[in-house]
Amino acid sequence: MIIKPELLHKGDVIGIVSPSHVASVEEYEEIMSRIENMGFHAKAGKNLYKDTYGYIAAENERADDFNEMVNDPAVKMVFFGGGEGSIDLLPLIDYAAVRKQPKIYVSYSDGTSILNSIYNRTGLMTYYGQTPGLLKDLRHYDYMQFAAHFLDGNVTSFTRNSKWHILNPGVCRGRLTGGYLLNYALLLNSPFFNYGNAEKYILFLEDYEQFNDIGTVSMLISHIEQSDFADHISGLLFGHYSESIHPELMERLKRFGVKHDVPVVYCDDFGHGNNHAILPIGCDAALDTGKCEMLFLG
């Protein structure tokens, strides 16, 4: 059974934590000011600015911040960014409390690990696509995505803001799952990843050319293909990789679609680019490449 969190209301508290990087005081004070200007209250984790290991806070410090937000009934959204290190927290998250007090969990990039683990362990829908840092220069498309999913509700379809490149046509249905390619691949075969044997899944993935070249992207896709989970993938939506089209990436994604006989689409609507669409992990969805649309069915 999928659990959906309640919507945000003006005056609600948004918890800010940093599982994946050391937060900058100047940057995060500006972020929290923006949250207040949007009509919400910001609560910062006590260890937000710690760098115990030199590059990041200790696991228990980051987990304490996260679990404090989980257990605080006043916090309605837990908002966190990327970096490297969120996988450290997976054994330390209070999943029972997450399930008992459902709230909105939002991140992207390295946050992939936590968002998927929460959904897999609790059945709570989580949200991939945005981070607190976006609030410093909040673009219209990104704000409309935020408002649609967290303030207005009843989002029934994916709103495009880029050209869709159809690499293998088709129609499919399945639960949404995915995120940043490296983190998602690392989750496979771990105790924090599971899937229903009778379920089909629409996989969404993204990567960025400054982080991984095409060869690395291909290797990680192959890792997913070699997992048992691959048989449950009904379609693939790949997000922003570069400002220019990479024919090698397009060909690699097309090969994935042909090999597994599933529709594959590339777009610039989500990922490390200019557009930051929100994708609800755990949502039942339908993808139709002929109509260039993806519907959220519940």
TrEMBL record:
GO terms for molecular function: carboxypeptidase activity. It comes from the Bacteria. Residues 14-129 form the LD-carboxypeptidase N-terminal domain. Residues 173-287 form the LD-carboxypeptidase C-terminal domain. Keywords: Carboxypeptidase, Hydrolase, Protease. The active site is at 109 (nucleophile), 206 (charge relay system), 272 (charge relay system). InterPro entries: Carboxypeptidase_A_C_sf, Class_I_gatase-like, LdcA_N, Peptidase_S66_N, Peptidase_S66C, S66_fam. The keyword Transcription regulation does not apply. Its EC number is 3.4.16.-. Belongs to the peptidase S66 family. This is LD-carboxypeptidase.
